[in-house]
Amino acid sequence: MKVLIISSNTLPGASPSGPAYVAGAVREAGHLVDVYENLFAAESTGSLAAKLNNFQPDVVGISIRLVHGDILDAKAAWGTRHLDLRPRVKEIAEVIRQNSKARIVLGGPGFNYYAYDWLDYLDVDYGICGEGELSFPLFLQRLAQGSDIYTVPGCVFRKDGRIEAVPPRRVKDWEDMALPAYDLFDLEKYAEYKVDPAIFTKRGCAFACTYCPYSKLEGKRYRLKSPERVLAEIRHILAHTSSRQIMFCDNSFNVPGQHAKALCHAFIDEQLDFSWGTGDLKPIGVTPDFCRLMTDSGCFYVNLAIESASATMLQRMKRGYTVRQVRESLDALSRSKIPFGASVMFGAPGETPETITETLNVLNDYHFPGGVWVTLGVYLWTDCQDIVAEARQTGFLQDDKELFSGAVYLSPNLPKFYLEELLAALRARPGYKVQFNKPSEQWTL
Known about the structure:
The chain is 37% helix and 20% strand. The chain has helices spanning 17-28, 46-55, 86-99, 109-113, 115-122, 132-145, 187-192, 214-218, 227-238, 257-270, 288-296, 311-316, 323-335, 353-363, 386-393, 401-404, 416-427, and strands at 2-7, 32-37, 59-63, 68-72, 80-84, 103-107, 126-128, 155-159, 162-165, 198-199, 202-203, 223-224, 245-248, 275-281, 299-307, 341-346, 372-376, 378-379, 408-409, 432-436. The strands form six sheets. The chain has a seven-stranded parallel sheet, covered by helices on one side. The chain is globular, with a radius of gyration of 22 Å.
C-alpha cells in the first residue's frame, strides 16, 4: 500500500521524531511511504494538495503532536500568545478529502489525550493511540487483507454511530524495531529552523508526577534500548544530514542512571562525529563525575527539569527528589563545561507566593548559561494526569469538554496583582523567559 504520513506540527522547536519512527515501521512492513511536514507550509495547503495528487496514497496518517500551543509575544496579554492548533489539523483533513480518496488515520501524542474528541472534531472514523510503531503496520496489514481493523491494539473507531476503543499494547523489545525513517525528511530544512533530529532511548517512567501522564501511558517499567541500538539510530541520522547534533527526547534522559552512563560510555568508545543534548535531565544522580562523563561523550546542552525547588511543592507534585538534590545537581552542572539551562513550573495545586519564593531563592544562587524557562499554569489533558482528578474535585474543572478546549490549571492562591508583579520581576532577570499558559479570567479576578 502507499502510505503518506503527515507531521501536522505548526510550532518550530520540535523534531518529527514520532512520524519518523512510525514511517520507519510502516516502510519495514513493506509499504511505500512518503512524508509531509506541515511546519514548512503552515500558511498554505497547495503543497499538500500537490503531494496527494502526485503520490496518490491509499492511507494518510496524520500525526498530531499538540492540540494547543503558547508562544512568547511581548504584545500579547501576559506576554504569551495562545494558539489553538486544531483548525490547522482540520484544514489538513479537508485538503486530504478534496484531493484524495485515501483513508485517514489519526495518531500522535496530541491524539492520545483526546481521541474521541478528535474523531468528532474532524469527522474521521479511525485513529490509533499508544505506540504506533506496533499498531499502524498491523492496521495496514488487516486493511490490505480485508480483515478486522477494529481489534487493532490502541485503535479508536467510529462504528454503527458510536465511538469505541481498544486498549493499546506496548512494544516490549525495541531492539528489532525499524529505524526511524529520518532519510525521508529534509533534515537540512529542519536545521534552518534550529530543529535537531531527536531519538528516544527508552519508553516508560517510574515516577508519578501529578501533572505528567507518561508513567500511566507508557508504564512504570522502563523498556530500554541497548547502546548498540541507539548508536545504530545515530549513524542512520548522521548519514542523512550535515548537522552533527542530535537531541534525546526521553522524558528523563538520566533515569535509570546506569543506562544513561552506558550510553555515554558507548558514545566515547565509538568516537562518532556528533554531539548531543537533552531537554529533560532530572535532578537525580547529577554528580561531578556524571557531568564529566556527559561532557566527554559530546554533550552540548542539557536542560535541568527542576520544576520546583520548594520542598512543599516537590512533595505535592510527587517529583521524586528533594531540594538538596536540586542544589547538588546545580552545583555539579555549574562546575562543568556544559552550557546548561533549567525549567520551572509554577501554579500546580498548592502553589503559593511563598513556595514560588522558595524556588526563586534557590535559583538566585546560580548562573544559568542556557537560561531559565518558567511556565505559569499547568495544561490539563487526560485522566492519566492526577492533577485532572484534583481539578474536578475542587470545582476548577467543571466540564471535561474543557480539556479539548485547552484547560489550564493555576493555583487559586496566586491573585492577579501577585502574578503581574511576578511576571515583571521574572522578565527583568537576564536569561529568564516566561510562558503564561492560556491566561484565563477565572484566575485573574
